[in-house]
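Handoff note, outgoing to incoming analyst
You'll be picking up this chain. Sequence as last confirmed:
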Amino acid sequence: MSTTSLVADSVWKTVESTRSVTDDQLSILHFLFGKNFERATRIVDQRGVKRISGEPSGRSIFQVVGESRRKEEYFCFPEHYCGCYSFFYDIVNRAEQLCCKHQLAARLAAALGICINVSMSDEQLALLLVKL
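Most recent structure output, in case you need it:
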């Protein structure tokens, strides 16, 4: 794990435990993630993050609104995957970023406890995931 990832994980854990974010933490996250973090905060401010949870398992995936005029919604797992173009181009292909703005928005909203929560059966969640 890189030093950048270790620093980011430390900040995320603190934000998650306190359910709040300080100016210093925002500065660190902005330094680490740059414009993607700025964009992620706009998405969170606009309440653009849903956590879709299956019942009774509690398994979940995030659905995050994009910033384009079309307002596409992308499914993502904050630490591992996003269905957006940037994830495949900038992260997987070119390894230029650690994560995309949708992953950051999902992680920030979850850490602060401000996701729009949607519940469905585990079967419905499985069918949703099959379509990805």
